[in-house]
Amino acid sequence: MDTARIGSNPEPQPELFYQATGSEVQLFEQADRFGMPVLIKGPTGCGKTRFIQHMAQRLGRKLYTVACHDDLTTADLVGRHLIGADGTFWQDGPLTRAVREGAICYLDEVIEARKDITVVLHPLADDRRILPLEATGEELQAAPGFMLVVSYNPGYRNLLKGLKPSTRQRFVAMSFDYPDAATESHIIQHESALDPARADQLVALGNAVRHLGQHDLEEAPSTRLLIHTARLIAAGMDPRQACEACMAQPLTDEPTAQAAIMDIVRLHFAEPGQVEARKKIA
Amino acid sequence: MDTARIGSNPEPQPELFYQATGSEVQLFEQADRFGMPVLIKGPTGCGKTRFIQHMAQRLGRKLYTVACHDDLTTADLVGRHLIGADGTFWQDGPLTRAVREGAICYLDEVIEARKDITVVLHPLADDRRILPLEATGEELQAAPGFMLVVSYNPGYRNLLKGLKPSTRQRFVAMSFDYPDAATESHIIQHESALDPARADQLVALGNAVRHLGQHDLEEAPSTRLLIHTARLIAAGMDPRQACEACMAQPLTDEPTAQAAIMDIVRLHFAEPGQVEARKKIA
Amino acid sequence: MDTARIGSNPEPQPELFYQATGSEVQLFEQADRFGMPVLIKGPTGCGKTRFIQHMAQRLGRKLYTVACHDDLTTADLVGRHLIGADGTFWQDGPLTRAVREGAICYLDEVIEARKDITVVLHPLADDRRILPLEATGEELQAAPGFMLVVSYNPGYRNLLKGLKPSTRQRFVAMSFDYPDAATESHIIQHESALDPARADQLVALGNAVRHLGQHDLEEAPSTRLLIHTARLIAAGMDPRQACEACMAQPLTDEPTAQAAIMDIVRLHFAEPGQVEARKKIA
Amino acid sequence: MDTARIGSNPEPQPELFYQATGSEVQLFEQADRFGMPVLIKGPTGCGKTRFIQHMAQRLGRKLYTVACHDDLTTADLVGRHLIGADGTFWQDGPLTRAVREGAICYLDEVIEARKDITVVLHPLADDRRILPLEATGEELQAAPGFMLVVSYNPGYRNLLKGLKPSTRQRFVAMSFDYPDAATESHIIQHESALDPARADQLVALGNAVRHLGQHDLEEAPSTRLLIHTARLIAAGMDPRQACEACMAQPLTDEPTAQAAIMDIVRLHFAEPGQVEARKKIA
Amino acid sequence: MDTARIGSNPEPQPELFYQATGSEVQLFEQADRFGMPVLIKGPTGCGKTRFIQHMAQRLGRKLYTVACHDDLTTADLVGRHLIGADGTFWQDGPLTRAVREGAICYLDEVIEARKDITVVLHPLADDRRILPLEATGEELQAAPGFMLVVSYNPGYRNLLKGLKPSTRQRFVAMSFDYPDAATESHIIQHESALDPARADQLVALGNAVRHLGQHDLEEAPSTRLLIHTARLIAAGMDPRQACEACMAQPLTDEPTAQAAIMDIVRLHFAEPGQVEARKKIA
Amino acid sequence: MDTARIGSNPEPQPELFYQATGSEVQLFEQADRFGMPVLIKGPTGCGKTRFIQHMAQRLGRKLYTVACHDDLTTADLVGRHLIGADGTFWQDGPLTRAVREGAICYLDEVIEARKDITVVLHPLADDRRILPLEATGEELQAAPGFMLVVSYNPGYRNLLKGLKPSTRQRFVAMSFDYPDAATESHIIQHESALDPARADQLVALGNAVRHLGQHDLEEAPSTRLLIHTARLIAAGMDPRQACEACMAQPLTDEPTAQAAIMDIVRLHFAEPGQVEARKKIA
């Protein structure tokens, strides 16, 4: 089968581009040194996942990433029994593999998970650093190098969900935000090969749209979204059309909010694209 | 077994009729070039599915279509273990097949799916382009040519559902609408062999009914519905009877709304059909 | 095993009695000719099921009937894996059998089904006429002669249920109602062997009860219910007693509504039956 | 194994005592003659189950009784696949056995069942008299003698439950109530061997408690409960003590309602029993 | 395996201490004589379980006890199919064992069970005394000596739960309460070896706390709780400390209610224990 | 497999540091002597888990710890059947192992468990000390030394959850709180090697934050959280930065509450750390 095992990294990977914006690298390294779990907060697409990929490379660790959701069961994390020719056998889940191998286990959008997930995390997230596998009767001691990292977006107001205080207080926490204008323009140029002038224009446009506020948009445009737009512009597409396809349409379904974004777009990119009346594709 | 595997396309298919109405083809090709996922919005029966079938033919890709619904599980998309003579074996789902083969995977009405579905999409819908198969421990890198396409109808006001911003911002998006009158008449003639004069009459009737608005109809009549009507008229059925069977009855159960539609029908098709009082079949 | 396979019809069946009341037969035949799915609306017991049995005989097709309900799963329609001596094997459900054999598949009370059911219907209900079997990876092209028919009763006001516009607009639709008095009397005489005079009396009584309206009865008496009553009268039972057992008691549990019905009964059938005070059996 | 198969009745049973109170026996026989299903309404413990046992004996049919509840699945009624040495095999449920053998299938408290249950009943409860077994692909024609009987208590006001009109209108219905005083005393004497004078006293007491009404008691005392009381009195227990143990305590947990019942008891049975203050056993 | 089968009682047990407080023993024996099921009501820890253990010894019957809860399934009571080397085999549950062996089956806190549980009880709780095993097709006639006993605490006001009248009216019912002061002191001395003076003090204290009423405590202190306290005092612990650990802390989390209890404690046990301010262990 | 069985403790462990703060050790030993179960209440991170680890070492018992949650099933505690080469076999859960081996079973955050869990605890938590295994038909008598310990945080106001009085009254209960300042400073110094002066500063800061109250913080900072902060300070991190990463960010997502905490931090640690404006990592 032509597939790689999760985290097996059989060959050297090119180093990922990561632009540090504070002391997040040092704090992560201290947490690692003391075996403390790390909690990263921040909005969509601001670089949380990229940061953790970067730290895994820097520390020389395998990385197991699990995107959390409502139906993720403890078994999805820890493992389960499967039926083979000789009866049931146990198959480790990604968390268990990370515990055995001393890897980083990253739970993305952890507050989307059901609360029972946080419970298997508790004995891993204090001085015990153990993972009880109730289904097999094992109790794993985490290998040196194991690190638990979780993230969520505090901007989503989910009254029913959230980490319990008894979970939160186990973590070292850091808060991410969008990069400053110069850094963001640098990132965009690196990822899209767009020229500096138009990258700056795009960052200014992005920040203008970010000021529209919550009553217009569910969430502000991310750095990732600006990179998408930059790629289409660098490929020769009309900037207004690129902004409609990568910014106005993905951000909202509301015609008035789309119009407000396109007004801002027209202020930043003067030459008009032909916006069709019947079928809008930008 | 006399059935074709999904997407196996063993023999050349006749080219599908598709009438482009803007730059949607070019935008789709750019998204494909950069490996970006595509989101298509638009009302029922306006040609979204046909467009994607057309693009799959044009790009020479296999197409896997999945109609989303509340009970679609991640396993339905990704695959599952089955029990065979020698124990369990793994069977790929349509998304996994598309990822392995470099095909297009189209998730129709994606907001009908549970939110956990969108989570397997995240690592496929950013620069990583990977599909972690938690149940087998594999992590697939998408083959070149793989493309993720999703669609939904923004006209359905579903307060509980909707794409999360962290999902939406990963997509290049385009918005479809009904074609203009000349294009729609052309499509109807092509699909039903109805004469141009009556096709034009039918389009005018369709647009008149579309102006009835939301307090009368849950959704406006689609191009597909006009094609149905045209086929029955072209087969010799009385136009009023065809309009009742293919338009008034499918659009609504409300007698007053049905009467409003039939009033409009009578304005466009003067010769009367015998509408029975006791059992209405139009 | 002394049982017939669904729809196998191994021997000629006597022709079912069906009294057409409009052009429903012709419309059904046109829909069949164009491979369009058919939607039949109408109240309880007005002859929808009988009509479809009749059309299946007339067109020489096998008929698969599925009564829909809340817990009907897609697997119940499409099929499922069972475990045999050599591991799992696939067993077709009734929809899949109809698709393979070119038969009629009739989903009775389709709005009782969960919405995920309607989704497997979509690719069968447009020009594609395909049934993707996600569990096996097959994609079936419907055999010639396959026809999808669904029905529901628009009189049930179910706010949570209903067909989505994207489903409705795929169907040719027709609306059934109770037959006119002469036809209904004819049907009753044919089915119960009651004499014409008392059959006419019974139809007049039925129509009088139908005028009681919704605040008295959840649903008006059906033709089927009048046939039941007629059979007991023809068998020699006192008409008032037959009307209480087959009409007043089945229609409602409310004493006042039962009394209102029995008042109408007494107006139509003058000779008194002995209604007991302590235990009412009519 | 020292157990009888359901309904196998290997040896003649003594005839059950049943005291008819109207023409219910004749109506049941007519419904049987025409193959019509029967619906019996009535309060707790008024003799519905005993009546059906009586009719099964009288008609010489096996009887399958199923007590319905929220979690009763269609498989519980129809059957299911079990896993044996050679893979799965099918095991009939009680409804399927009754259909094959021409027996009576009695669904007690049918409105407690989920609505999907009623759906397997529909094709059995009209002229088709068929039972489709979707899991095996069979379609059983009911053997001659098969009869479907259902019951419920209309006094329970369950807003969420109830039979749909499309179900109700398939049944011949009859309504049971408590027997009149002379009949009830006769039944009590027969079942408990209590002397006629005290049986009459007990019936008078029962009817007095039945007049307490719904704001005091959830449901009035049944004939069964009076038989219980009579047996303890006939065995020599003080009547007041027997009435508290078999009537006041089972009917309610409310001290005021218990006191109201005991006041009535003292009016009918003058000699006092020693009611203890600390632990009341009556 | 060093474990006893439920109810197998392979060797004579020492007779359990039980202090009768009324005619409960005689009523239970009458119910047994007539094969009637028994319902016992009463608050937490007043001796219901001990009474039934006592009656099982007295009548020479095995006892199967099942603690009921929300997730107890019918299969937990009746039995289920397990998979062995030769396919599935049936394993009796505790209710089925009691029915086969003529034992007592005691369902503790029966209103915690789902209502479907009560349904398997119905045919066992009337004259039929049968247990239909739908999964195997058996219908068991209860062996002589089988007795069904259920209990609940009427003090819990659970609006959603409760026995249906059709269930309640099948039982002979008795109501338990706390013993009178002399009896309770006797029980405490017997179970804890505390001296009579301090046992009397403890009973007086318990009754004083019982008068605090419902707005202070969810439920009054049980005899069992007084025994716990007595054991620690008899072992030499300061009475105030024992009362805090066994009475104030278990009864409530509310500081004001704990303080109210400790005020009463100090009135009954004059010599002060050192109550720490920082960590209260009493 | 390189893992230890739960509780097998194959080699001597270094003695855990535990600072007693009252007579909790003596009370625990008395409860153990009488076989009484123990309930420990207290806020997050105040030392409950450490205390139980300490007592297990002191009493020379194995310790089985189960973190409770909504989806913990009885089978997770008691055991379940697995399928092996020769059919199903039974595997003990942690509670069953503790019962067989005479170990301590500790259920952490027991009110998070579903109520059915508490039911398997009842016969273990009174004089019977038995564990009925309904799935196997066994009834285990707890080995000498078995001890049941549960804990929860009474500060979480969960209206839907909570121990039933019939459960609570079976336990000897003790209440934990944060240690006094001298003890807490001693614990911090022992666990982090921070110097006494700054440990005292940190305890003063922690107590100041604890006075912010519930309208600012969901729960006050725990001793564990202060230890985390102390470790980073002892490792050379700026105290303000350490306090933001280990205290302000983990305690809350609210900017105003974070600012309030940081104001208090600045009052206790005068030298300023460079707090970045764009990305806060503290």
Description:
The structure is a homohexamer. Chain A contains eleven helices and ten strands. Chain A is an alpha/beta fold. In chain A, helix 8 (about 195-210) runs antiparallel to helix 9. Chain A is elongated, with a radius of gyration of 22 Å. In chain A, the strands form three sheets. Chain A has a five-stranded parallel beta sheet. In chain A, strands 4-5 form a two-stranded antiparallel sheet. Chain A has helices at about 25-35, 50-60, 75-80, 95-100, 115-120, 165-170, 180-190, 195-210, 225-235, 240-250, 255-270; strands at about 5, 40, 65, 80-85, 85-90, 105-110, 130-135, 140, 145-150, 170-175. Chains A, B, C, D, E, F: This is Denitrification regulatory protein NirQ.
Give the SSE map.
The structure is a homohexamer of 282-residue chains.
Chain A lengths: L3 E2 L18 H10 L4 E4 L6 H12 L3 E5 L6 H5 E6 L2 E6 L1 H8 L2 E5 L6 H7 L8 E4 L4 E4 L5 E6 L12 H4 L3 E4 L5 H12 L3 H15 L12 H12 L4 H13 L3 H14 L14
Parallel strand pairs in A: 2-9, 2-10, 3-6, 6-9
Antiparallel strand pairs in A: 4-5, 7-8
Helix pairs in contact in A: 7-8, 7-9, 8-9, 8-11, 9-10, 10-11
